[in-house]
Queue: 4 jobs
Job 1
Amino acid sequence: MVRVLILGLGMVGVTFSVGLERIKKGEVKPYGVPLADVDLGIKIRDVEVVGAIDVDERKVNHTIYDVAKSFYNMDSVPETLRGVKVYPGLGGEFVKDLFPVYEPKGGHKNILDAVYNTFRELRPDVVVDVTTTQEGRIYDTWEEYERDVLEGKVAPSQAYAYLALKYAKEVKPVAYVNLIPTPVANNPVIVSMAEKVGAIILGDDGATGATPLTADILEHLRERNRKVYSIAQLNIGGNADFLALLDEKRNRAKEETKSSIVKDILGYDAPHFIRPTGFLEPLGDKKFVAMHISYESFNGAVDELIVNMRINDSPALAGLIVDLARLSKMALDAGFKGTVYEINAFFMKRPAPLGSKNTARILAYQQLVDFAKKISEKKTP
Ligand SMILES: NC(=O)c1ccc[n+]([C@@H]2O[C@H](COP(=O)([O-])OP(=O)(O)OC[C@H]3O[C@@H](n4cnc5c(N)ncnc54)[C@H](O)[C@@H]3O)[C@@H](O)[C@H]2O)c1
């Protein structure tokens, strides 16, 4: 069994929980789970959500079932989720501009302890971070990072990652999967400590809709030696994530993870604008994406590529979490520590370790399948 703890029970966390249980019941097929047809040894039915952590007063101390039904008005919510609780988290002050925040009792130290006790109680193998995007920095030293965690000055995701490392040291090996742009797996001090305590840190920022497609189109152009003049990619959505990204600091974190693909794949930095561009409520979770790429081809010919899409945002990431949970457990069982580039390269917009290149997902997919087959045969690195 793979015990999964969700940090941030928003659209993605809820969609993952509901979709996973519906696959297990045979109500839906595992479409959108990239490795559903690859024999990994760990089956989808082995993945189990054991709890969620949130800071929204309207979600804390309810169950995932309640949140899916009453907060998100979802139909077809499996009864099994009635038994899975939402526990209070930390760092609510970073999002109090967005919604009513649950105020836990005690000072910062007590809150850290309480969240750590939730980890101990739920005994996760995999902690999945799908909290609201926060600005975070890259630390030079462990001491500086630890001090900021203890004083409550870090982005919440970086504080959760600290607790996961402590848990790996004191309780059992764990994988921390950071699907948001805040740098966690791209923080070398965090990854080095993971190597020491037997944890795996994957991240950062899940690559879902337009970014992997852009990466593959750029690879296509590069392989044909077409010179890219400019890339414009607009994203407009109506969910809470897009609302949160209206804040310039949060959006900057997102932009940084999205833009790194251009130079990595083309080998030069073509002028580009790639970032969440706006919030339009009626679009809901189904975002509108438009892409325009202009490039030079043989004999000076100039071509243009235009793509328009409407993409369901949350299911795109939720489907990836099913595989990330299974791959994380496999990697832990095979003795991996630190981070795993082969997994990050396919699933993340900014694949760790820090300084790693983005590759086209078509290439990363082959690498991932080879890697998964290798570790499912239990070969240690
Ligand atoms: N396709 C995608 O949807 C996609 C792709 C890549 C990355 N992401 C990232 O995934 C994250 C989740 O997306 P979403 O659409 O579910 O957003 P959301 O706003 O619906 O959900 C975020 C959840 O995190 C909770 N939260 C905020 N701060 C917290 C904290 N300190 N501790 C615990 N919980 C906290 C919020 O209460 C909310 O329930 C976002 O950061 C987004 O940028 C999403």
Job 2
Amino acid sequence: MRKLLILVITLIMLGAATPIAAQSDAQTHYLLARPLPATANIRPDFGFPYGWHRNHQSPIHHGMDYLNPRGTPVLAAGAGTVFYAGSDTDFVVGPQPNFYGNVIIIQHDFASPEGGAVFTLYGHLSSIGVAQGQRVDQGAVIGKVGATGIAIGSHLHFEVRVGDPANYGAVRNPELWYPPAAGKGKVIGRLLDVNGNPAMGIRVVFSTAATVQPTFTYAEASMPSDPMYGENFVMGDLSPGCYRVRVRGGAGYVYDESVCVKAGQTVLLEAHMNG
Ligand SMILES: [Zn+2]
């Protein structure tokens, strides 16, 4: 039986006056859970986020990475049907064969707000525990973390695809599809340049007196924003509190504002760079 989740999401619009989403919109997205047990490292690597290419040192990243030891159980992020389970040598779902190694794709039982079927993809697995066509419940163990395909070290590569599961470009930022971790908050951001266009590859730093957490923006046709948010970065798993959000420019900062998040809260931030 499907579990009903009552989500309490507070959305605050900061900066510009144009809302980038309403509260009901986020509720339509928070339908998945994290693809790992709570005992594993469930914090994604925000230093190599969705849409980033490590200053052109890597292929642009179509998902998020969870660094975990080989053998860590991988869980179905939501209930659904296994669309594919096997090597991506024969069934190519990345930019080249054997990119994701052992890969599982699950089709979920809900559609995206804009109407496409929603899929999750789990890459670089050391082992696969499900078969094509099999039904899975949310939280079911489907495989184990590994480093098959093109992977630097053992980690789970996790993607959300909408519409076409075999289309490498049909991705969305997975961070948009599950709520903040217990006791944490999330910022969904849109960073705009001086002409009002979404900026690509900009380092956005969230800092407090004790912490510095960078992430990078995305804004390319091959790396879609969610049609509902128009976002180009997400910073998840923020401890409650206020953060200085800054973007460095030529001689100083071209964006320098404060944003506060509470536990369980998702904050929408529209940030305009002034240089
Ligand atoms: Zn990855």
Job 3
Amino acid sequence: MAKKKKIVIDQDKCIGCNTCPLIDPDTFELDQSDYKAKVKRQPEEIEEIHQTAVDSCPVGAISIVEVEE
Ligand code: SF4
């Protein structure tokens, strides 16, 4: 089965700092109801900008995981 990479945000860890939506507003958004980041749209391919968001999150809430399609 094919594997695909996916971005996951740990809602318990996210402190709503708004860094990830600033880095990549196409992929991340801050939910105004609970001030937690959500994945707005899963990217087709994981690119450097997504890794930058992972590395920039102050609480390590963003992960790139492999899922089976
Ligand atoms: S960078 Fe991390 S803590 Fe900040 S909004 Fe994004 S997921 Fe939440």
Job 4
Amino acid sequence: MILIIYAHPYPHHSHANKRMIEHAATLEGVEIRSLYERYPDFNIDVAAEQEALSRADLIIWQHPMQWYSVPPLFKLWLDKVLSHGWAYGHGGTALRNKSVMWAVTTGGDERHFAIGEHPGFDILAQPLQATALYCGLKWLAPFVVHSTFVCDDETLQATARHYKQHLQSLLEVANG
Ligand SMILES: Cc1cc2nc3c(=O)[nH]c(=O)nc-3n(C[C@H](O)[C@H](O)[C@H](O)COP(=O)(O)O)c2cc1C
């Protein structure tokens, strides 16, 4: 089962993520949890999130990039749900050997991420990658959608189709 943890602060105003989610939702074996719709008061049901994660073989962390990082509710989700004794630490083995993929959309194009002294997208991925590895998750290559500000609807639809195909192939690998 693929579990998409979806964190868009304004899901109804989304262009890129909305289409990706719509396409992913048509796949069998995919469950989507839209954090901002589920927890508008930021009161995350940790037990329910952990139960959903337990059922998943592959976890997707999907969100728009915000200030080179994740939206605040997703950060809170990481802090609360990946708890000691469950995701890491003594007895914390719940996520071991599952896989995770970061699906992120950005306003900037690829060159936009070349600014600064230590440029590169891999650097931005590092906190999430390290979090995943610390919890025993396998880190898959991220699915990155750049230049969302300038993409027309046709391009976004094509990207969403590509996303769906990619999830489908990951499902097939997971099912052996
Ligand atoms: C508060 C905020 C911060 C953002 N920070 C970044 C950023 O650091 N880098 C970037 O490329 N885009 C940034 N963006 C642009 C979003 O990533 C972009 O609008 C989003 O990926 C588009 O997806 P959507 O159509 O699903 O909303 C930011 C947007 C907002 C609202």
